[in-house]
Amino acid sequence: MPHETKKRVTIYDVAKALNVSTATVHRALSGKETIHEKTRERVLEMVDRLGYRPNRLARSLSSKNVRLAVVAFTSFPEFHDSIIAGAKQATEDLADFNLHTDFYSYLGGDSNAAAGTEFLNNTLERIAKDRYDGLLICARNADGFVAIERKKIPVVTVVNHVAVSTRKLSIRYHGRVAGRMAAELLYRMGNANQAVAIASGSYGERSIHSEILEGFKEQALVTPLSLVATYSHYDSKDAAYDATIQTLREHPYLAGIYVDSFNSFGVIEAVKDMGMERKLTLITSDISENLRAHISQGIVQATICQNQFEQGRMGLEHLFWYIMEGTIESSTILLPPQLVLNSNIELY
After folding, report:
1. CATH architecture for residues 65-172+308-335
2. What's the rounded Cα separation, in Å, for the pair 243 and 246?
3. Fold identical between 65-172+308-335 and 175-305?
4. CATH topology of domain 175-305
């Protein structure tokens, strides 16, 4: 039999085995006093059992500054603020290290406008010029990534996966499962004998939206639905409004709409202006204060959340330990979609 290379044990393996944080494992190994002695003993025992050996580079870096950049680039600050909050939490969790994190948040509205493209490219070029040790980013593909690649800055992406050669990890929710959930919800909550439509963010064949559409179509074969229209709005509220009005006029007997991105505002306004609220089933994505009100009023039946906070927290933590350890457990981590109804909305 061919010789199989044994997978190197990482700090994540130890943390998972004990159901503790990576920071706790580090504290136990470094002799920090801010940890209970019984916990330290459990960690050391598991380290021996698994054969974990801290990277020499990690030990040398632990006394040096590590600089990370976090870029949150979408059309909706209310959406990407949760990513930043998660990354800030991870930074606090790693307070034992000399970690410094800078945050770059786009607040200019439509991220597809010229101003958005300029912001993204300029920010990426600045990060490359300042030689950050790593980049956590929620964005789309852009020319500025050339500078990141040239400097060989390791990248972790969240929400969407950007095609950059230095990307080490993509963390996002399971889009295919989210699409399946949406199809089943439309089937069970609405009129399964009538047509439905999808309002999509749509950023190309390899985007999260293409994964969602694949899952939706898969489930539609099991719980039969007639998908008569899929229209794109590219995260523009106005484009979403206009496209929804057109779709409702072309399909006056539409039974439901699934909005596969945070940009549900324009879709909901169009549905209300056409007098279709509560006459069709609306399944949206993510959560906002505006959406909470529409769920409570029964205008939106359910929303499927992708937990941006956890993506930001996990993304920064994995990026940091990649820099410290030189390894990463997987190239992709898919988080389970979260279903939010009026009955459990207080939890989100």
Report:
1. 3-Layer(aba) Sandwich (3.40)
2. 5
3. yes
4. Rossmann fold (3.40.50)
134's tokens: 């790593």
Do 154 and 131 form a contact (C-beta atoms < 8 A)? no
Regions of the chain where pLDDT drops below 50: 1-5, 59
pLDDT tens per residue, range 104-154? 999 999 998 999 999 999 999 999 999 999 999 999 999 999 999 999 999
Chain centroid, CA 78 distance in Å: 14
Residue 280 makes CB contacts below 8 A (sequence gap 6+) with 190, 254, 255, 256, 257, 271
pLDDT for 63 = 58
Three-class DSSP labels, the chain? CCCCCCCCCCHHHHHHHHCCCHHHHHHHHHCCCCCCHHHHHHHHHHHHHHCCCCCHHHHHHCCCCEEEEEEECCCCHHHHHHHHHHHHHHHHHCCCCCEEEEEEECCCCCCCCHHHHHHHHHHHHHHHHCCCCEEEEECCCCCCHHHHHHCCCCEEEECCCCCCCCEEEEEEECHHHHHHHHHHHHHHHCCCCCEEEEEECCCCCCCHHHHHHHHHHHHHHHCCCEEEEEEECCCCHHHHHHHHHHHHHHCCCCCEEEECCCCCHHHHHHHHHCCCCCCCEEEEECCCHHHHHHHHCCCCCEEEECCHHHHHHHHHHHHHHHHHHCCCCCCEEEECCEEECCCCHHHC
Report, in angstroms and rounded to the nearest whole number, the Rg of the chain calculated over CA atoms: 22
Burial group, residue 28, by CB count within 10 angstroms (0-12, 13-18, 19+):
buried
